[in-house]
């Protein structure tokens, strides 16, 4: 997508000077949907998987260069209450959508404290990844589908309203 190309071009423009000075901070904003996908938003999930892959690859490149002054932060918020996924429904035991202000505060905290990752809310993300990530490694796909159905995540994006005509692409994600 155009956004991915812009991120690559911007990073390519700034990274050489960062490497030369051994100083800088690169922030990648993705989504928890780049880690766990669902039906109906394939293009969105693919772009977020791409952003996370770009971030991980770039992190390896910087580590391989032995430059410890360049920091990397990956922001992967859970569902944010922006209206983009208005109507998204998931099991009520899951946390409600996050307020944008909370995500900004958490992201800035991660950037300023150089913690590397802002997976807001952290407690939810740690639970999500510690429970589900290992399952993806050894369970057959049909078992994952059953888990998604139990959680209500298999159709949580149905129906997703179409973005309003003329809406700015950057505002939609």
What is the CATH homology-level superfamily?
A: NAD(P)-binding Rossmann-like Domain
- Distance between termini? 11 Å
Radius of gyration: 17 Å
Q: How would you write the strand order of the largest sheet?
A: 1-2-3
How many domains, as an integer? 1
Could you name the CATH topology? Rossmann fold
Number of strands: 3
Largest sheet: 3 strands, parallel
Helicity range: 40-55%
Q: Beta-strand level of the residues, as a percent range? A: 5-15%
Mean pLDDT: 74
What structural class results from the helix and strand content? mainly alpha
Strand/helix succession: HEHEHEHH
The oligomeric status of these chains comes to single chain
Notes on the structure:
By secondary structure, the chain is mostly helical. Helices cover 49% and strands 8% of the residues. It has one domain (2-162): Rossmann fold. It has a three-stranded parallel β-sheet. The model is unreliable at 120-127 and 165-173 (pLDDT under 50). The chain crosses the membrane at residues 119-139. Keywords: Membrane, Oxidoreductase, Transmembrane, Transmembrane helix. This is Retinol dehydrogenase 10a.
């Amino acid at each position: 997508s155009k956004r991915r190309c812009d991120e690559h071009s911007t990073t390519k423009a700034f990274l050489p000077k960062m490497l030369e000075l051994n100083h800088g901070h690169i922030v990648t904003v993705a989504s928890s949907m780049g880690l766990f996908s669902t039906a109906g938003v394939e293009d969105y999930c693919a772009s977020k998987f791409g952003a996370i892959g770009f971030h991980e690859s770039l992190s390896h490149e910087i580590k391989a260069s032995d430059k410890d002054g360049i920091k990397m932060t990956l922001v992967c918020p859970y569902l944010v209450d922006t209206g983009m996924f208005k109507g998204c429904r998931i099991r009520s035991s899951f946390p409600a959508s996050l307020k944008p202000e909370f995500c900004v505060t958490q992201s800035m905290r991660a950037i300023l404290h150089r913690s590397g990752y802002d997976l807001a809310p952290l407690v939810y993300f740690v639970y999500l990844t510690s429970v589900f990530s290992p399952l993806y490694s050894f369970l057959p796909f049909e078992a994952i589908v059953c888990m998604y159905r139990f959680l209500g995540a298999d159709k949580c994006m149905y129906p997703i309203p179409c973005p309003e005509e003329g809406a700015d692409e950057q505002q939609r994600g």
